[in-house]
Design goal:
Elements: E1 3-15, E2 21-33, E3 37-41, H1 48-55, E4 63-68, E5 71-72, H2 78-85, E6 88-91, H3 103-114, H4 119-132, H5 148-160, E7 166-170, H6 178-195, E8 198-202, E9 215-220, E10 223-227, H7 239-248
Helix pairs in contact: 3-4, 3-5, 5-6
The chain binds adenosine-5'-diphosphate and magnesium ion.
Magnesium ion binds next to helix 1.
């Protein structure tokens, strides 16, 4: 299986206020298979967002390497890093829309900034995307005038504009009610089926999010446990994972323990 992203013995720490050191990633190895969906789960503050920032080169590792399509991101700077980032579509926590731009302008932004398309081409392309994400008719609205679900759809539409080969989603359903979350998951499944990108989804929404996962990574105390499928998690003998399964996945997943 080809890997789109591979972490090799990555260490990332932060200095603590008390003078100590917090190891957020304490020598982690994992790979993200191309064309598949990997879910990274773990408690709040365990390093999920930091992991995504390292992938994008928005933060630097202390040591170790991160390969993206065979290139070591940790060795790239400036322009090369910019070029690499263009491979990614990113939906950050909160959607990160520009409040002073309309829906149309938000979605058009990557095309204006990164391509040489004419105004007319951009108009067409954005109209197509907005239709795909069921946002037609809302072009002139500002983010504050949209529901949480719509904001996420705009964020997703924008992230998809440059047809990235890798998509990163940081807590895509946080702050949404269950119906909206379900809508986002359907949208994800549809978009993924159509474009076939590699994706990493960081999420708390367990076990629901596992329906989308090919591979699951659990982040705990600076270490990562990698599972080839959500079902595999239940077979782990690590106490912290058994506890996690019981707390978040429920009785169905414990059925093998019942005689
Ligand atoms: N720029 C930073 N400076 C210092 N500490 C940071 C920084 N970014 C993140 N951290 C710390 O790293 C840990 C992991 O953060 P993060 O990846 O955002 O967690 P989460 O898993 O909730 O996304 C947290 O304890 C956070 O306080
Ligand atoms: Mg986070």
């Amino acid at each position: 299986m080809t890997s789109a992203i591979a972490f090799k013995n990555v260490v990332k720490s932060f200095a603590k206020r008390d003078g100590g050191i917090q190891y957020v990633l304490d020598g982690v190895d994992f790979s993200i298979p191309a064309g598949k969906t990997t879910v990274i789960a773990g408690g709040s503050g365990t390093g999920k967002s930091v992991t995504l920032k390292l992938v994008l080169g928005l933060m630097q590792v202390d040591s170790g390497q991160i390969f993206i399509k065979g290139r070591d991101v940790t060795a790239l700077r400036g322009r090369e890093l910019e070029q690499l980032r263009a491979e990614f579509g990113v939906l950050f926590q909160g959607g990160a829309l520009f409040d002073s731009l309309t829906v149309f302008e938000n979605v058009a932004l990557p095309l204006r900034e990164r391509t040489k398309k004419s105004a007319e081409e951009i108009q067409d392309r954005v109209a197509t995307t907005l239709a795909q994400f069921e946002l037609t008719g809302h072009e002139e609205k500002y983010p504050a005038q949209l529901s949480g679900g719509m904001q996420k759809r705009v964020g997703l539409a924008r992230a998809m504009q440059l047809q990235p080969s890798i998509m990163l989603f940081d807590e895509p359903t946080t702050g949404l009610d269950p119906v909206m979350s379900q809508e986002i998951y359907h949208l994800f499944a549809r978009t993924k089926a159509e474009f076939g990108f590699t994706s990493i989804i960081v999420s708390h929404d367990i076990p629901k999010i596992f329906n989308l996962a090919d591979q699951v990574i659990l982040l705990h105390n600076g270490k990562m446990d990698v599972f080839g499928s959500p079902e595999e998690i239940q077979w782990s003998e690590k106490p912290y994972i058994q506890e996690f399964v019981q707390k978040t996945m429920g009785d169905i997943y414990q059925s093998h323990l019942v005689e």
